[in-house]
Structures are given as C-alpha cells and as structure tokens.
Design brief:
The chain is 48% helix and 0% strand. It is an all-alpha fold. The relative contact order is 0.07. It binds zinc ion. Zinc ion binds next to loops.
Length: 130
C-alpha cells in the first residue's frame, strides 16, 4: 500500500511509514464489504393480458351480450344452463350464476302473485255464489 502522508510504497501490514513515520494504520482498516443482500426479484406488474383465458375479465359488452342472450326464451335458458357449469371462463360462469339469482327472485314474486290471484278469485266466487 501507499503511505497516506508521503505516498511511499510500504508494507501492507506496516503500522508506520518507514519514510515519514506517519501512522499507516489510520484509515487503513480493510474495508468491510457489506453483506450483499440478494436483490429481490422485481415483481413485474401483472396485467390483464397475463391472465390465463379462464380468468380473463369480460368486457362490459360481453356482459351486455350475455344478458341479451339469456333473455331470449328457451335458447337463452339453454345457454344459461351451459354457462353455469362451463369452466372456460370463471367470470362468465359467475355472471351466469348470478343471473339465476335474479330468475329465482322473479319466480318467487310471480308465484306469490299467482297464489294471491287464485285465492282472491276463489274468495270472490264464494261470495258471489257461483
Ligand atoms: Zn510516509
């Protein structure tokens, strides 16, 4: 190494410079290399395009199209059953299942209305006597 004071070449482990007598140990401690922390792999941003087909989101138009499809009598009902179980896209399957919830609620409301109508009709028939 070189002396910090006079730049004379001195022994690496020398405590004093043999030329000028300066303290060779000062500022000569071996540099402690910091323990290198393994760099975290940069987690790339996951975009919609990275998702596999069965997880990819449906566009608003797809939802709209499915609603139209399901509202078609008979044909819509067949698709409703198929897409409720088809695993090709989880979002379409979930939307299809949610459509069932709507249908069931409408069905219950219609059943209640039907029962009340029949009861009222039967009641009216009794009062009139025919
Ligand atoms: Zn020196």
């Amino acid at each position: 190494m070189l002396c910090k004071n006079c730049n004379t070449q001195i022994e690496d482990n020398a405590r004093f410079c043999h030329a000028c007598g300066a303290d060779a140990t000062a500022d000569n401690q071996p540099v402690v290399t910091p323990v290198s922390v393994p760099e975290q792999p940069v987690r790339s941003q996951i975009t919609v395009d990275d998702l596999p087909e069965h997880l990819s989101p449906l566009s608003p138009w797809s939802y709209f199209g499915l609603q139209i499809l399901y509202s078609i009598p008979i044909v819509g009902f067949i698709f409703l059953i198929i897409f409720s179980f088809k695993k090709s896209n989880i979002n379409r399957r979930n939307f299809t299942r949610s459509y069932w919830c709507g249908l069931i609620i409408i069905g219950i409301i219609l059943a209640v209305i039907l029962i009340f109508t029949l009861l009222l009709g039967a009641g009216a028939k009794l009062t009139r006597g025919y």
